[in-house]
Amino acid sequence: MPFRSVLLLSILPAAVAESPVRAADRPLRTVDPADAAEDAMALPSGVAVRPWKFIVIHHSGTDQGSVAAIHREHRSRRDRSGRAWLGIGYHFVIGNGHGMADGQISSTFRWKQQLHGAHSGSLPYNDRGIGICLIGNFEKSPPTSAQVASVSRLIGRLTREYGIPSDGVIGHNQVRPTACPGRFFPFQEVLQRSRQRTAVRWY
Length: 203
Ligand SMILES: [Zn+2]
Prior knowledge:
CATH superfamily: Peptidoglycan recognition protein-like
Strand content: 5-15%
Number of domains: 1
Strand order of the largest sheet: 3-2-4-1-5
Order of helices and strands: HHEHEEHHEHEH
CATH architecture: 3-Layer(aba) Sandwich
Structural class: alpha/beta
Bound molecules: zinc ion
Radius of gyration: 18 Å
Largest sheet: 5 strands, mixed
Mean pLDDT: 86
Shape: globular
Number of strands: 5
Distance between the termini: 36 Å
Number of helices: 7
């Protein structure tokens, strides 16, 4: 097709000129948080909404990750009574460009089916708490600006839509003694930005 060859020709010189970085090391593209939150929150029709009271924020503690990778890992875990986990314990995962696009928000089967979480180590917070996990280790470095924008937007939309009070938005370390979501997670900034109704473009 002539269109395709024109396209290829216009892409080729740029690709050749690029520095020799391995594809796996290159961050994936960044997404717009305004669209990302709305898309991820959409529920299949007929699913009854769970009466959410909390949002619990986590980091993955890893440099890279994705819904699929965490799902695989959590499926191998067992609860206190020896039953295998259903799979990924969070309701949302936000990518950092390594494994998922930077700022990408993905909902999991737990959100789509409005199931309890398996993320906080506490029954009431798992039962009524929306678990959001950002990929990264925020004990070592802060989240990307796209992640901060996306998580702020998602929290803002969730708290307004489901009537979650702002003191119900907490870090995992407020539920139990853990470093999660890490000392570099900008909690106050995220809370503040989540209260802004209009999306602020971050780029
Ligand atoms: Zn955690």
